[in-house]
Design goal:
Strand 11 and strand 12 form a beta hairpin. This protein has 482 residues and is α/β, with parallel strands linked by helices. Helices cover 45% and strands 15% of the residues. About 2% of the residues have low confidence. The strands form five sheets. It has a four-stranded parallel β-sheet with strand order 4-3-9-10, sandwiched between helices. Strands 5-6-7-8 form a four-stranded antiparallel β-sheet, with helices on one face. A three-stranded mixed β-sheet has the order 12-11-13. Bound molecules: zinc ion.
């Protein structure tokens, strides 16, 4: 099957091919760690988690890099977010960074978001950023003014190719005091002169200072993924100036294409306005997890396409949680039925299963269309329900049939979307446990047939010790958990 992705750079769907066969190099802009992560972050990183999971499921080896911004990300007032928090709480800036980086990973772990392979920090890559700025200066794409270094936007004619915006006033780069030093208002800071009282500062060829926000992503992606790599992800709200500036810096410095595919996610909004720390309209992931299971939260985000915004409200989340419950309940019921044992052996091959899997994968291959994939999973749920509640007089479903459905739930809802509670998917699943007990029952039967009573008794007794009771009857041996 062919994977199609919507490339925000070309503004159209394209067939995805990786630069190196079988290998995907992927970068996603990470969080600025100056507060606890909220549901807006959760929407973004769950979306990329599913994308990474699906690429890996499809057979790609993925190197997933996601940065941690711990310096240089300024508020509209020109204050550094981390430093402002440090001053307020009387902490070292690195204490702030450490606290909220840990909090971020804890929240992502709780959401079942696979950790990036590399989580580089901006403050740990200052030499790489300085080196890249020197390259831009040497190539005439940057200039020094008053101890700061600015990118000369007019030297890069492609500026604006991602966002469609050009030569607009930069919001980020330091306001009134620096505006006069810039050649043109659209130029943005690569390096900023630090006042003596500024806590986080480094030596540079241009004096004491600190890096601008955009340059970290250019420098760190080049270091870990190469000058040209496959996928760049991030929130659509960062397309300008951040992503646009990343492209300009990287392509001007290296003279090569930066990211080949741009995958950008829509925001989580509250009454139409983006959920954000600065607006105060946020719910932290920790708070949400006190009421809802991680899988239900993931389901809420995945019922919308990743490129679209989702409007958050308590009612919308509650409704999604109920939908998730309806989808998953039959999967849990099958798991419990299998664990209880006593089902007729054998498997009736269901033609619907491969067909459901094909449709699910076709949805995911179409720009990771999780909502369409979830709609297919509802067909699997309906099928499971029919088997769990056979018509009057009909025989109960065979164990093997339920095992096959359990395995498919595990693969699609569990491994790919991460919306199935862990115990029902992947390793250590009840289906696997049931199969193992079945195997031991068969071995015991063989032992009995060859009159090896000590072995057959030992199997029965040892199973009893771990809480599994065997019952011999006319129809063969069944088992149940004590
Ligand atoms: Zn970035």
């Amino acid at each position: 099957m062919t994977l199609i992705v919507y490339n925000s750079l070309s503004r159209q769907k394209e067939v995805f091919t990786s630069l190196k066969p079988g290998r995907v190099m992927m970068y996603v802009c990470g969080p600025t760690v100056y507060d606890h992560a909220h549901l807006g972050h959760a929407k973004t990183y769950v979306a990329f988690d599913v994308i990474v999971r699906y690429l890996r499921y499809s057979g790609y080896e993925v190197r997933y890099v996601q940065n941690i911004t711990d310096v240089g990300h300024l508020l509209d007032t020109g204050e550094d977010r981390v430093l402002k928090r440090a001053a307020r709480d009387r902490l070292e800036p690195m204490e702030v960074v450490e606290t909220f980086a840990r909090s971020y990973f804890a929240a992502m772990d709780a959401l079942g978001v696979t950790r990036p392979d590399i989580s580089p920090r901006a403050s740990a890559h200052v030499p790489e950023q300085i080196e890249m700025i020197e390259k831009l200066l040497a190539k005439g794409h940057a200039y020094v003014a008053g101890g700061s270094v600015y990118f000369d936007v007019r030297s890069f004619p492609d500026y604006g190719k991602l966002s469609g915006r050009r030569l607009e006033e930069q919001e980020e780069s330091g306001r009134v005091d620096t505006r006069d030093e810039k050649r043109n208002p659209e130029d943005f800071a690569l390096w900023k002169r630090a006042e003596p009282e500024h806590i986080l500062q480094w030596n540079s060829p241009w004096g004491r200072g600190y890096p601008g926000w955009h340059i970290e992503c250019s420098a760190m992606s080049a270091k870990y993924l190469g000058e040209t790599f496959d996928i760049h992800g991030g929130g659509l709200d960062n397309i300008f100036p951040h992503n646009e500036s990343e492209i300009a810096q990287s392509e001007a410095a290296h003279g090569a294409t930066f990211a080949r595919y741009w995958l950008l996610t829509g925001s989580l909004t509250v009454e139409g306005v983006k959920m954000s720390k600065s607006l105060g309209n946020f719910t932290t992931i920790k708070q949400a997890l006190q009421t809802y299971r991680a899988e239900a939260l993931r389901y809420f985000f995945l019922t919308g396409h990743y490129r679209n915004p989702i409007d958050y409200s308590a009612d919308a989340l509650e409704a999604a949680a109920k939908g998730w419950q309806r989808l998953i309940a039959p999967a849990i019921a099958i798991r419990e039925r299998l664990a209880a044992g006593g089902l007729p052996p054998g498997e009736i091959a269901l033609a619907a299963l491969p067909e459901i899997k094909t449709r699910f994968l076709a949805a995911m291959d179409d720009d990771f269309n999780a909502p369409a994939a979830i709609a297919v999973l509802f067909d699997l749920s309906r099928l499971a329900n029919t088997l769990l509640h056979p018509a009057e007089g009909a025989p109960p479903a065979a164990a093997g049939t339920l095992v096959a459905i359990d395995a498919l739930f595990g693969e699609l809802a569990g491994d790919i979307l991460g919306i199935l509670p862990a115990a029902a998917s992947g390793g250590g699943s009840p289906a696997r446990e049931a199969a193992l007990v079945r195997l031991l029952i068969d071995l015991r039967a063989e032992a009995r047939n060859s009159k090896n009573w000590p072995l057959s008794d030992s199997i029965r007794d040892q199973l009893a010790e771990i809480g599994i009771a065997l019952k011999d009857g006319k129809e063969g041996t069944t088992w149940e958990c004590a």
